[in-house]
């Protein structure tokens, strides 16, 4: 299988990124793997999509640190990659990382990916739908029953009234961003600090204000989904609880949160089940659902992470299962003809 990952930049990849784990596992399984930057794509005169790519030179790296070192060394194996000839193109770039230095890069990469999809390449997640998911407004298209009450606005009065209506408790965050950056948890008694939090959030553009869920104090669940269903291998779900033992209310790993493996409860599995039809329809092949109680707080469709931690804690080969699923999709595509099956069809076979 020819597998290409679109990432932000090989220089900024880290050894705890899901992409590096998938790359190492794919190389060990004998697949032809390459990684390309979202800013290095080209549309050639013959209509093909190409990019300068970096490839693993080894298939026997003992861990992700060794794999990343192989990819980042000065004499790393590099070549021109014809993405149009790939079997699978996986989009693994975080748009939040491009907002300041290269605001054009992510949206442009999706347009290149759309061209590749039109040429019959299996592109995941679906680049046509990812353009609709460029910020957190996409989340509002999921069933209201599994979402917290939410407003999106740049009007301080609208946001202030929402917080008042919620009894002085709410969560506010930028419309764009990831990793818990710029998230404020508002509780009673903060006084004028609330105005400062709102002003700080609005400096980044639109703000989201959501109802405060008391169970969030216990952390949240990160549940990985594949083909619109909770990912499960050997009776183990790809799920962790993220929590913070400090006064910081954020449980994101990048914000200092801790993790433990947990079995998702009935509420969490119901959230995944309710979100499933839209994920399948939108071609959201691999996602990360952040769940508190019976509500989905966010859905990560660009670079769902946490897989490395989950695998290391459970010793379950989720990466191998994902790659075997991709192999199955490639076989089905070959059977029906390149480009004959769309992402939503490939998700249910």
Automatic annotation (TrEMBL):
Asked if the Swiss-Prot or TrEMBL record annotates the protein with the keyword ATP-binding, the reply is yes
Keyword terms: ATP-binding, Nucleotide-binding
Task: Return the Gene3D superfamilies for the record.
Answer: 3.40.50.20, ATP-grasp fold, A domain, ATP-grasp fold, B domain
* Any Pfam family: GSH-S_ATP
Q: Which GO terms describe its molecular function?
A: ATP binding; glutathione synthase activity; metal ion binding
Q: Does the keyword Kinase apply?
A: no
The record's section on PROSITE patterns has: ATP_GRASP
- This protein's superkingdom? Bacteria
GO CC terms, sorted: cytoplasm
- Domain named ATP-grasp is located at 136-327
Give the PANTHER family listed for this entry.
Answer: GLUTATHIONE SYNTHETASE, RIBOSOMAL PROTEIN S6 MODIFICATION PROTEIN
Q: What is this protein called?
A: Glutathione synthase
Organism, per UniProt? Palleronia aestuarii
